[in-house]
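Q: Two folds, back to back.
A: First:
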Amino acid sequence: MVVEIRLPMNVRRAECGRTRMYARVAFIFLLGVLFFSATLRAAVTLEQVAADERMWPKEVKLTQAVTLQLYDNGRESGSVQANVGMILQVRRVEVARVTVALGTALAVVPPGATDLLARAALAAPATAPAHGLQNFRADWKMPRGQWSVLSDGEIEQRDAKDTVSNAFKTIPQSGRMEYRLKLRYLAGKSACAMIYIMCSAGEKLERGNCYLIADAQNEKGQAEVSINRVINDGPRRMKAFPADASNGQWIDLRILYDGGSGLMEISRNGRVLGSWSDPEPLKTGKDFSVGTCLTKGGFKDVQVRPLP
């Protein structure tokens, strides 16, 4: 025997009302989660995208109509009106411009006229953490200078008279490598912050055989970044690039090195300064090192990783 129990009409209406209310609350909560996730993914800056080639999208879409000046082999070859919605193939991303390809020609478009940041934000969560990043907060060997490790992972050198201070870590390096870090120092006569890569002997004065990248600024406010080749602890200046003065301010430096071809590219604050090729490239290194010359300085957010 089946007994049917019928609820009073007012009880059924109350139950239906509660069900609809719960559904609305769940829907609003879901929207909030989606919005929050999208906000996190969109929280990238032009500086971050320009400095990290892994975040460059393969293509961008125009969100504004622009006139594109075309270049063929470095020479102007005309212009074209590009409309909203046009898809462009990305070749390089810098803070102030995006270089794109149109057939065999290249053109430059302002990042704000594209959906660059939205596309880069989608790639950001998939970006793998750099090799060794989690280990750079400790275990530094500091044979020269007055070093200290701060709470946020920054290491600071406080002896303004030391000509070659030294903090190094053992990090195997070979093939194609990327080096990223932030540095700051006080300008002065012969003052510079130094990064040593592909080092054969991090404990030595000039790290044995390696490459030395020096960010320097003198007392007159003139700044440059130089590439130096070091063999048997003897540095030799190979190439230098003018740079913007940044007395005591954080500088975002990125170094790309290919041990196969010997090509090295230097970027500073999201802008490519230039490149140099070593005809006899160093194939391997066991240590990575930073230091200062005649100045106080700091280093943080150090990343060293192999590239595919």
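A: Second:
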Amino acid sequence: MVNNNDEILKLLPCSRTDTDSLVALTHKVKWDFDEKRINRLLRVGSIVGHRTSHGELISSTAVFRYGQTLTSLGLVIVHPDFQGRGLGKKVLEACIQMIPEEEAIVLIATPEGKPVYEKLGFTTVDSVHKYMCESVQHHEVKVSNRYHIEDVNRHQSNVLHRIIQLDADAFGAERKLLIQNMFESDSECLVLFDQNGEIEGLCFATKSEPYTVIGPLVAPNDETAFALLTKLTFSIEGRVRIDIPDGKTDLMKMIESIGFHKMDNPPVMICRTDQLPKRNGTYYALASQALG
């Protein structure tokens, strides 16, 4: 509980009944979340925030625990009218205390939040590249004879198991609840098969307002990553967003050739360790900046 300017602010968990309040809070800081994106965050993680004595939600932080080794924080917001009072630091401290000490904590920082994160022990270890496209320039990209791309068969349980494992190896931590939620929802999903019928890549697309989000994207190389992306976006109309980890320079050049433009390059910060979990080099796009 925090007393700011003689008003008692309570730090409380959020639920599906707070969806509209969370959407409104994101809009206060000019973030483009809609009801669908907020509900997904609530399904795969937990969100806490400060409320005024009148029940108005004026801060938030989302917590996503992946296995027993890594937690991602996102949706760190303080209402503009309540900024400068230490609420962001307090809600972060409360969330960090919820997380077992053996788990590393990662987040993607805004310029405003970076100094606060540094005071809490976070250091910069990487960055991501945010790309937007108003309308994808569609053209077919063929993969080598070693692979072929298909729509996922959601009725095969072994497909889901393999996708969860591919994502875990690429991301560096198991995200079973997230991937299962995306797999069973209305997100589109393509998979990459090798000559032996083994799944070696995947790409999700999730439609929301005001754009479609591409990711996670896992592939054995730049060629197959680009092929998955272009095939998945072939039927998508309107704006498209993708967040690409640092180091995937060739894919960034490829997507720029079909109309994507880099909008931002925020830092990835971590605490309780000095490096990201071990990855195998196949992670080409984040699920989102909040989810990692």
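Q: And?
A: The chain has eight helices and 15 strands.
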